[in-house]
Amino acid sequence: MHEGSSALTLVLGGDPALYAIVGLSLFVSLTATACAAAVGLPLGALLALANFPGRALVTVTMNAFMGLPPVVVGLAVYLLLSRSGPLGFLGILFSPKAMIVAQAILVLPIMAALTRQTVEDFWAEYRDELTAMRVGPLGRVATLLWDARFSLTTTLLAGFGRAAAEVGTVMIVGGNIDGFTRTMTTAIALETSKGDLPLAIGLGLLLIGLIFLVNAAAWGVRRVGELRAG
Amino acid sequence: MRPPVSDLPLVLEDVSLLARDVTIVRDLTLTIGAGAPTVLVGPNGSGKSTLIRLAMGLIAPTSGRISWGGRGESDGRRRAMMFQRPVMLRRSASGNVAYALAAAGVGGDARPSRVAELLAQVGLAHVAERPARRLSGGEQQRLALARALARDPEILFLDEPTASLDPAATKAVEDIIRAVAQSGVKIVMATHDLGQARRLAGEIAFMLRGTVHACAEAERFFTAPATPEAAAFIRGDLVI
């Protein structure tokens, strides 16, 4: 990357280092979103259906965790994964794996909380029918998640958006190592502090463009799906 | 195909249901046996829907006893219900029926042919792959019937099955109900349409203020009503 080159030529010029950064960002955030979804969607659905003492407390806690500060999550994961930490033996600190873990933890409460909301609305609508059909608890979770699939794309996007946009956790647990754990957001932070504003701006535009593309793709999938499935 | 245990007769004894201190059903006693359809008539709020939910086993009474075939507990495998406003799953018409079959424990291999049979039975074979929520009101009602029949029920509960349908759609639904009743399925149906009650009922239970006010064989209910309230209701007077 050359000092002084304009943001536009950098973005359009096909700099391999730049593409590596973009690729890693997408890989980490998409993987983290997928992991968080695998846990968060069923968890949110269960919370919507289950009735147990302390349910309100769990719900409020989860909603509050939607606002977890990324740097705090980063710090917690750092402590877990550091050499003397309980999971230090994994040896994944300062690697993309650590970044995925941290982002997944950051995104999980959002997924679970938004899923709970959506599924609760669907449950109000489906309760009578599913009860009359004697559908068991696991069947209910599966049915509601499947039938709410188009509404849940918004949940996935919210999770992905938060993962892709944050800088605090990946900076702490990834370490912003050039060519290994440098993502778009950490690169923007670094280049800005170094004074390479064109690169920072170029990366910023690219990041916004990518998030827009992912959202547009999700919207398209949702529309087509809704048209076909009603 | 059906398990040997029967859910009939369905007996409700001194059943009451309170919700937040409001009495919805009080001291209701009714025996529903095999045979021609039992039709619940009565004004809005008289407890018809609640009685159906109790009899289906969806809600438990506050006091009193409900038994199916002499048993206080029943897994409900032989009962099916169609709600006043059926909720279509966000799937195709055949997807809805396949779902009901799976919920009823019908294995995956047997499902496709049963789906086709059931859709044909309710006259929806031509819209099998259409999203259920895009179907017309009458088609949705018939799809809900197919879904209920997927349980191969011994008792089929219908709550106002044609409440918001035009005459043609109503006739289509009634024809299916009649055929189902003739095949030996016990129909228990709530309606506020007296004409429909006359067309379908073998037996009428007239409900008023949360209880069964009068119960008689249909012919006799209409020609010789047992109480002044029943007579007024049949005349079309406002009975509250």
Number of helices of chain B: 8
Give the total of beta strands of chain B. 9
Shape of chain A: globular
Give average pLDDT of chain B, whole number.
Answer: 93
Proportion in helices of chain B: 25-40%
Q: What's the assembly state of these chains?
A: heterodimer
Order of helices and strands of chain B: EEEHEEHHHEHEHEEHH
Keywords, separated by commas or semicolons:
heterodimer, A: 230 residues, mainly alpha, 10 helices, 0% strand, globular, B: 240 residues, alpha/beta, Rossmann fold, 3-stranded antiparallel β-sheet, 9 strands
Would you kindly provide a written description of the structure presented here, covering whatever features stand out?
The complex is a heterodimer of chains A (230) and B (240). Chain A has 230 residues and is mainly α. Chain A has one domain (16-184): MetI-like (MetI-like fold), CATH 1.10.3720. Chain A contains 10 helices and no strands. Chain A has helices at 7-13, 16-49, 55-65, 70-81, 96-132, 137-147, 149-165, 168-174, 184-194, 197-229. In chain A, helix 2 packs across helix 7. The longest helix of chain A has 37 residues, at 96-132. Chain A is globular and about 65 Å long. Chain A starts with 6 loop residues before the first helix and ends with a helix. Chain B has 2 domains: 1-78 and 154-240, P-loop containing nucleotide triphosphate hydrolases (Rossmann fold, 3-Layer(aba) Sandwich), CATH 3.40.50.300; 82-152, no CATH class. Helix content of chain B is 34%, strand content 24%. Chain B is built from 8 helices and 9 strands. In chain B, the strands form 2 sheets. Chain B has a 6-stranded mixed beta sheet, sandwiched between helices. The model of chain B has no long low-confidence stretch (mean pLDDT 93). The chains are: A mainly alpha (230), B alpha/beta (240). At the A-B interface, helix 5 and helix 6 of A face helix 2 of B.
